Automatic annotation (TrEMBL):
<dbReference type="InterPro" id="IPR036868">
    <property type="entry name" value="TusA-like_sf"/>
</dbReference>
<protein>
    <submittedName>
        <fullName>SirA family protein</fullName>
    </submittedName>
</protein>
<feature type="domain" description="UPF0033">
    <location>
        <begin position="5"/>
        <end position="29"/>
    </location>
</feature>
<comment type="similarity">
    <text>Belongs to the sulfur carrier protein TusA family.</text>
</comment>
<dbReference type="InterPro" id="IPR001455">
    <property type="entry name" value="TusA-like"/>
</dbReference>
<dbReference type="Pfam" id="PF01206">
    <property type="entry name" value="TusA"/>
</dbReference>
Length: 79
């Protein structure tokens, strides 16, 4: 099961805070799909996630202009 979080319509820094809280409830190695808006959220959220040690596995633009990120918790850290 892949966890999913829709943060479209949210503004920074609320976008990252919601993603961070969701990841805290997940085990290392679990994946999270994050739907977020273009602009500041897609520029800042992936960069901040990588800085916190998570892996952004994919970033796909959706037909409505939003983005779908696939994130692996702690994915950038050696296992």
């Amino acid at each position: 099961m892949v966890n999913r979080l829709d943060i479209t319509g949210e503004v920074c820094p609320v976008t990252f805070i919601k993603v961070k809280l969701k990841l805290e409830d997940m085990a290392s190695g679990e994946q999270l799909e994050v739907l977020l808006d273009d602009g500041t959220p897609i520029k800042n959220v992936p960069k901040t996630l990588k800085g916190d040690g998570h892996a952004v596995l994919s970033k796909e633009k959706q037909p409505d202009g939003s983005y779908l990120l696939l994130v692996e918790k702690d994915g950038a850290k050696p296992r």
